[in-house]
Amino acid sequence: MRALLPLIFFIAAYVGLSVIAGDFYAIPVTVAFMMTAIVAVALSRGTLKHRIKVFSRGSGKDNILLMIWIFILAGAFAHSAKGMGSVDDVVNLMLGILPGNMVMAGLFLAAAVISLSIGTSVGTIVALMPIAVTMAHTMNESVPFIAAIVIGGSFFGDNLSFISDTTVCATQSQGCKMSDKFRTNIRIAAPAALILFVAYAVIGWQSKVPTDLPEVNYLKVIPYLTVLVTAIMGMNVLLVLVIGIALSGIVGMMSGDYGLLSWMKVIGEGIMGMSELIIVTMLAGGVLEMIRTNGGIRFLMNSILRHVHSPRSAELSIAALVSATNVCTANNTVAIITVAGIAREISHKYALDPRRVASILDTFSCIIQGILPYGAQLLMGAALAGISPLQIIPYLYYPLILAVFALGNILMVRKLKTEE
Length: 420
Fold this sequence. Notes:
The protein is an all-alpha fold. The protein is 79% helix and 0% strand. Helix 4 runs antiparallel to helix 14, helix 6 (103-118) runs antiparallel to helix 10 (178-203) and helix 9 (165-174) packs parallel to helix 17 (332-349). The mean pLDDT is 84.
């Protein structure tokens, strides 16, 4: 329990400081994480040098550094594309095609299709969020609400895609085919997504598209169109962003919006705009590594496994294990890898279907990752939208609906099998 105190402190500190400030979004996440990092180091065992070494190891892990590279390039691309008008032209093009009542549903569908194609929620958010936010401003819609639509849709594909790292880890660890896991998973995710698609169409019924849209400069659409197409083709997200940055500069200079030096300046501003996000990511990585090293995850696993007595409780325990681990690691892939071995042991002991176990691991890890204010997806989405991650959370309907269907599937299917 002691190992989990930093995580509990983070939640208490953030909420407490926000209440004192009188504004729930006034306190930067960096402040809460800095205080949490100090507490995590103070509560850990060993010499101060050893504790700092463990913290630094967590901050510099491969997955943390990869996220930081994505944040840097995403900031550079988003700022570069926006500075020369690419985002505005893409938005005007989309608003000219979509009727107003289908903009919200259309964004959700676009995020779902792109994420299903490229297998990454972060890559989808990077590609779509600047467009979605500009559309929100143009149509006078809530930015946190629109941001949540993109994030929710991005997790649909992250959960189902054949090339998603969560799918690969879940299926390989449980010894089942991706196609079998997909068929099991789609029965849960598809109804949740369909309900939300219809809901967004209904919610957006009164939305109006401005009639005085400027004429689209199709040359400026090229950078974003290229990013979307290359992402859907499965190109590495880092390479996609590098291409996007280069095209933004080339098109910007061709259209007279940039000189070489002004383009470089805009890129620098975009990177600096991601500085808070980068700091939070490194602090979170260090704190979560200390929780793991000090036995926090093992404590959670032992606490949950005490309640396993039947196939139904076995499936619920696997869902709880991967969910709790995801809270402590802020990475759904790492959470799956961490509990996969134990999940397989539980599966063998209670004769569970490996396809269902793989589906549970993937689905519940995505549900938790989709609502974590310190997860890469919400941090990235909030940074690109210029808002706090906590402002997005109240509108994250897809993870909640998916959770209802996923839990219902465990409870109802197991009940039917017991009755049979």
